[in-house]
Amino acid sequence: METEMQRVVSVARAAAGLILANGGETCRAEDTASRIGRAFGYDMDIVALPTGVTMTVSKDGESVSSIARVKSRTVDLTRLEQVNGVSRALAAHEMTLEEAERAMKAIAEAKGPGFWRSVLAAGGSAAMFAVMFGGGWFEFLIAGLVGAAVHAVLRRMPEQAAASLDCLIGGFMAAALALAASAACGRGNVSLIIWSIMMPQLPGLAFTNGIRDSMRGDMVSGGARVSDAVMRAVVLAGGAGIAMWCYLRLGGAATWLR
What is the strand order of the sheet 62-69 is part of? Predict the structure, then answer.
């Protein structure tokens, strides 16, 4: 039978891991786990990194250490809010540790948005960026369709595929399909369409979290997040550049790249 200390470790580890895996800052993961431990009178020593968390929980001369590995990272603000809700309930003693364990397990196993829902959201986002950048109805339509197609392909990629590979494929498809549509129809601002399609793929939240971690003194986590975000952006642009180079080598007119 688990002791209270073991349950505190289990819940705190799960909360910190879920925050790191769903787009939260490392400082938030550390603070959430610490609040859970302090709510039950335990001292918490926590070190969180983008790829995992290490913690030691102690009280009355006894201590338990635990390590959690974060194998995959995404952005899911709904799960972050759910984890925050559980931690607040624990801090206010409105929920028991057993209930919190079940809640954390349910959050971890909850399915994300459906395939078609996410595809429509990606297409709509790209289309709205085209409008924001000053495009007309043609740019709006092509950006939306191509953005949806790119997201559909990336959603079908194997889960073990590297994030940089997703960025390379996404950038290449965005430019290649935009160039093909514009050349076939003989109109459209290709540059604007490509920008609009690529905007939802940029790791803006990861970059922001890296800056926030650095400002709080977590230089390792902040540097890692910023480096990862910059690398993804460079690879994304590189994929688009490859498509443009191939287009020109195949005889495409450079005037389409205005």
Answer: 43-49, 52-59, 62-69
For 151-173, the pLDDT digits (tens) are 999 888 776 556 778 889 999 99
- Residue 11 · residue 35 · CB < 8 Å: no
Structure tokens at 130: 């085209």
pTM for this one?
0.79
Q: Residue 225 is which amino acid?
A: R
* CA dist., res. 46 & res. 9, Å (int): 11
Question: b/e for 218-245, b at 16 or more Cβ within 10 A?
Answer: beebbebbbebbeebbebbbebbeebbe
Which of 205, 207, 204 shows the shortest CA–CA distance to 226? 207
Domain map (residue ranges) of the chain: 4-109, 115-257
Instruction: State the DSSP string of 203-228.
Output: -HHHHHHHHHHHHTT-HHHHHHHHHH
Q: What is residue 140's predicted lDDT score, i.e. its pLDDT?
A: 95
